[in-house]
Specification:
Elements: E1 2-10, E2 14-17, E3 20-28, E4 36-42, E5 57-71, E6 76-92
Antiparallel strand pairs: 1-3, 1-5, 2-3, 3-4, 5-6
């Protein structure tokens, strides 16, 4: 499966245990009702995010993972899903925001002297 959209969040790499690390990004889709999808990259796939930045339009190849957990205290089973990325393709590089200059000061007409007018 694939998800296409713009990267809106890039989290730092997390060392979950001695043998497991992950890095998460959020990809926001361009639809009538945009979806903000958390994608997790694990182990050696964490470095796929290194060259990406917020604002990049990407296509992410994913696997959906599911797991069960039994809550012994409540006697119920719970289920969790993870969206795991394994490939990320740059479609369009994001543009850094342009710094806006301060607007020119507005001088009220009442303060302008007749001699200051150019005509």
């Amino acid at each position: 499966m694939e998800i296409e959209g713009v990267i809106t969040v890039i989290n730092d790499e997390q060392q979950v245990s001695d043998k497991f690390k992950k890095r998460e990004i959020v990809v926001s889709t361009d639809e009538t009702y945009p979806q903000h999808i958390l994608v997790e990259f694990n182990q050696d796939k964490c470095n796929l995010v290194d060259n990406r930045k917020v604002g990049d339009k990407v296509k992410v190849s994913i696997n959906i993972r599911g797991r069960a957990w039994h809550d012994k205290a409540k006697g119920v089973d719970r289920y969790f899903n993870t969206i795991q990325g394994w490939k990320i393709e740059l479609l369009t590089q994001g543009v850094a925001p342009v710094a806006q200059s301060a607007p020119a000061p507005v001088i009220p007409v009442a303060q302008v002297e007749e001699s200051d007018l150019p005509f």
